[in-house]
Amino acid sequence: MTKIRGIDHVQICIPIGEEEKARNFYGGLLGLQEIEKPDTLKANGGVWYQVGDLELHIGTEKMNQEKGKRHVAFRVDDIQAMRTLLENHGFTINEEKPIPGAERFSIRDPFGNRMEFISRNTSI
Predict the structure, then answer these.
(1) pLDDT tens across 74-105, in order?
(2) Domain that holds residue 100
(3) What predicted TM-score, i.e. pTM, was given to this entire model?
(4) Among 43, 63, 83, residue at a domain's last position
(5) Which of 10, 37, 63 is the last residue of a domain?
(6) Is 87 within 8 Å of 93 (Cβ atoms)?
């Protein structure tokens, strides 16, 4: 039996042609490191980032207005600093239900994707 070892990447979507806006948010504001997409996928549009040992793939598609629970959760060291950064850039902070041993909140990125930010208390 094959064992699942972990998560390789997470993919979210943005509207077609909005890659520069994505770069401004994910690379500029959040400081993620952009990585080159394989040549075989470049024609599809989008942009990829390295996030620790994982990858965040941002694809392009015709977007609808549905804003569900699907999301990326970014683990951060200083949750208050991230909250302040995002508030200072005009993002609405959405408080999340408490999880024992963690502080967290979410926002909607410029494309409507839900982004959670979480800091876990590792001393528990």
Answers:
(1) 999 999 999 999 999 999 999 999 889 999 99
(2) 66-124
(3) 0.82
(4) 63
(5) 63
(6) yes
